[in-house]
Amino acid sequence: MQRGASDQEIKSAYRKLAMQFHPDRNPNNPDAEEKFKECSEAYAILADSEKRSMYDRFGHAGVGGPAAGAGFDPSVFQDFNQRGADLREDIAIEFEEAVFGAEKTISYRRHELCNACNGSGSANAKTPTPCRTCGGRGQVRYQQGFFSIARTCPACQGAGTVVSDPCTKCRGEGRNIQQKTVEAKIPAGVEDETRIRFSGLGEAGVHGGPAGDLYLVLNVKDHPFFERRGTDLHCIVPISFTQAALGSEIQVPTLEGEHALKIPEGTQSGAVLKLRSKGVPVLNGHGKGDLFVEVRVQTPTKLNKRQRELLQELQSTTPIENKPQRHTLFGKVKEIFNEL
Ligand SMILES: [Zn+2]
Ligand SMILES: [Zn+2]
Asked: How many helices (H) and strands (E) does the chain have?
């Protein structure tokens, strides 16, 4: 079998050999029986992608075959099978923190190398001995019909080694749960659900294996009135009928304080006005998005006598048009952008 063979090649090669050496076809032939066992075992290794990557890198020694007992090096296993799990911590951040960036101290719990035994799992720092149940392989095989099935050794949980005097602090696992903090620099412009990876800050590996990674997942809180779309911000600002008709300059909120916005004469309700570069910084880039202000004309609901007279006078001089319009015309109002 060539290293790096495809799954299909492995399967068909195995099937051929298994047919050839199957005990049913070779009664009273110990040679064939031995060959059949060998190729079943080889198949079990090669069918397991993790084991196979070790085989591809280290050949037979990497997976601890029958001949590997003497010079067995448990670290070969630890590098591959005992990596600590990745951790996920969800943290809530303010809308403004996502826009401008922030520095956060995150507290979380993870398995760390046990200080008492320095990760060995042994109370007296004895070197772990190869597991007798699996012969140091970390896996046991059993026959199920045609196949030899490999499964994680129940005696050593796949470590391939056992500790005769387990450390009391970690019960022989070589790691225990500890509270940790991490300083997280949140860059300006992050979005909701952004994941920040901290390599090696996840769970410590078992029996001194490499640690997993820590992922911080940012949950950005909503803003009372700004809605974010990518790097752009949107908000709705009410204006009076006269401001819309006569034109005006109003103060609108931005994330960096109030900003003047010109309402042109004859602005329709629902018009969207743009304030350039008042949006969200581009993440890891240059520039900012824009702030879009949708103006909504408020119809006065309470009129005093004087206001009523003025509006009635206005009405008498205004040509009235109530012809129905196509729906699309209403939509077009929103497409009017006024750049400042
Ligand atoms: Zn310990
Ligand atoms: Zn074992």
From this structure: 8, 16
CA of 207 to the centre of ligand 1 (A): 9
Residues with CB under 5 A from ligand 2 (ion): 131, 133-134, 153, 155-156
Write out the two tokens for 235.
Answer: 């908000």
**Residue 85 burial class via C-beta count within 10 angstroms: exposed 0-12, middle 13-18, buried 19 and up:** middle
- pLDDT tens readout for residues 155-206: 888 888 887 888 898 888 888 899 999 999 999 999 999 999 999 999 988 7
Cβ atoms of residues 64 and 51 within 8 Å: no
Cα distance between residue 57 and residue 3, in whole Å = 8
> Which pTM was predicted?
0.59
Report the separation in Å between the CA atom of 114 and the middle of ligand 1, taken as the mean of its atom positions: 5
- How close is the Cα of 176 to the center of ligand 1, in Å? 7
87 CA from centroid of ligand 1 (Å):
21
